[in-house]
């Protein structure tokens, strides 16, 4: 039985000298407490070193995608020339399936193999032998950076991704603000139900609650910075004859905390909207002038990118975001949007 062990420097093939030890998962770590014990259980059969970081990245990328890389093919061919009947222990089930299809080798992947790989990693310096630790560390660092860049797939040209994310976040904030406002109106409505009918603006409503507290303080509080004069008079008159219930200091404190949260989210939403507006004017000024920054950002989000939106025919742009309505209209044989 052989073990395929992947390192930043190359592929290592070990010969497992005692197959029963792998089945004893809980006690397997005891066999790797020292380099001497580890070398009694595993013997290095072959080590295929990568030529450079580029080759290492290609091999790592192939492994992530469940494909067999060229260095791995080369390694396995050398092994299979001698031992055809042996099974192979692998750290990744997807890679094991790819090896099995290509070389018709039985690949094993289970909890015992996972523990074995962890133990090999602990004694890798002594098991591999002849590979300087500094070189291994340098290759590991270089490969980690290269693989991270590959996974991120960052493109400096694709700044429209920021617009898509900002627009999606803006929509989420609008939903959250709406939910919080409904909760604040309903909650404070038990104490002063008339206030919600008089003040229709949500932010002005929240600021009033934050400043006044209970309705008893309404008559002695100056609301001129928040409300117009005629609205302020109506609010103070309604407070004197309100039919709402009395609430405790703890109740009003919690309602005011909710108001603080609403105002904080609203401030961030305003900041995010300004950011989106600036980005849209810089990246797609013509689209922004035609349809506005919000609709323009939504069109880019639905299309995936500005380039994709530019490639769409006008008939497709017309129904972006209205797919459900379109198919519903076609199904019911009514006018399409």
UniProtKB/TrEMBL annotation:
GO CC annotations on file: box C/D methylation guide snoRNP complex; small-subunit processome
Keywords carried by this UniProt record: Nucleus, Ribosome biogenesis
Keyword Protein biosynthesis in record: no
Keyword set includes Iron-sulfur: no
UniProt xrefs under Gene3D superfamilies: 1.10.287.4070, Nop domain
Biological process, per Gene Ontology: ribosome biogenesis
Primary location recorded for the protein, binned into one broad class: nucleus
Domain Nop: residue ranges: 283-337
Compartmental location: Nucleus, Nucleolus
Pfam families registered for this protein in UniProt: Nop, NOP5NT
Family that this chain belongs to: Belongs to the NOP5/NOP56 family.
Name of this protein: Putative snoRNA binding protein
Organism field: Musca domestica
Lineage, top ranks: Eukaryota, Metazoa, Ecdysozoa, Arthropoda, Hexapoda
